[in-house]
Predict the 3D structure of the following.
Amino acid sequence: MAETRDTITIVDNRTGKQIELPIRHGTEGPGAVEIGAFTKAFGLFALDPGFVSTASCESKITYIDGEEGVLLYRGYPIEQLAEKSSYTEVCYLLLNGELPTREQLGEFTHTIRHHTMLHEQMGRFFQGFRRDAHPMAILVGCVGALSAFYHDHLDIHDPHDRMITAHRLIAKMPTLAAACYKYSIGQPIVYPDNRLDYAANFLRMMFSVPCEDYQVDPVQSRALDVIFTLHADHEQNASASTVRLAGSSLANPYACISAGISALWGPAHGGANEAVLRMLAEIGRAERIPEFVERAKSKTDPFRLMGFGHRVYKNFDPRAKIIRGMCHEVLRQLHHSDPLFDIATKLEEVALHDDYFIEKKLYPNVDFYSGIILKAIGIPVNMFTVIFAMARTVGWIAQWIEMIAEPGQKIGRPRQLYAGHPAREYIPVERRG
Ligand code: CMC
């Protein structure tokens, strides 16, 4: 718990009544006013649609400074982790709070590699979906269904059981994600190969077929590993908050992660990476960029430039900076030229010099470039958000563990400003006009 030192005085101008509320200071960034006594004193709720000014919890996992473009996992800058670490090590860090020793990393890697198999009966679930179902729809269903399979080690109040659940989810997500894809294209589901690392194993399950040899391309697997690291956590965003809220009722953790996946799916959140690629394809050629920029600025057109803007980053998204640089490098190494990448680069240039985007502080976010790399690797567009969900699973589960383990943990229960009809008498149907 952060120490309480300062206070803020709130005065009710109607009555002159005033109260002092404690200000809590964290280790970085703005502090927060504890408003618990506010409602009791004034009989008023705090209204903050979209949680723009509300800290929903105290957390030690991830820190974002939106003005400075800073993202830290457990204190470590994302730039250093993307360059020097691996996704598996980042998972350990997010879950345990510290970087592992060599021995701890070896043990953790072994554990994750040996939880990759799915219960054989899970395969039956895929059969229930239409082949043309969106892989996110299948993933939401199948992760929820895991709650019906893993009854052992499910005491959410036992830290050991919580960690086993975390290992299972992190390890099984690539197997499930690749299976969603294989099912949608009518190919046999590929079993994991536990000799391979996390990203390589996923690539093999996505692209190998039983009748041919498959060699994982190290450029592709490294690029994917960095993409996983960049997406691993992002503090209290819509999906993490959904996982926390669902988990606060002490619900089954697999069901909570499935709720998080549902929240991620929307185009304002993780669904944006898919929407970016579709938008770039729709733009088609550089000459049409001004037309789309004008549409994005129009008050009467709901169109937005996908991959631009962020609730928290108002200067630049550090993940976008890393991924933009990586994009050039990966395309070069894979000898891949993509006209959509040229359109993306030109669109970025036009938008960054446009007064509307400058004034509203709308910069490219992580999703603007990640799709170009995923496409170069051969990942189909409808799998982009599935990959985001795979990578974010560790963040969700770390947030869930932190929430459950907090002393005095309470069910989340926001209140509302009621604006409906005042109380009225029921009128029998025969007397209604
Ligand atoms: N294109 C055009 N105008 C925009 C855009 C955009 N991409 N984003 C925001 N605006 C405008 C918006 O119309 C509003 O204008 P006004 O003040 O005149 O009404 C102003 O900027 C503020 O927008 P907002 O919707 O109030 O901002 P928000 O913080 O609620 O939304 C956002 C953030 C990310 C949902 C939004 O910027 C957006 O829809 N972006 C496109 C989708 C996208 O790329 N999402 C991925 C986010 S990063 C990955 C992740 O974390 O999931």
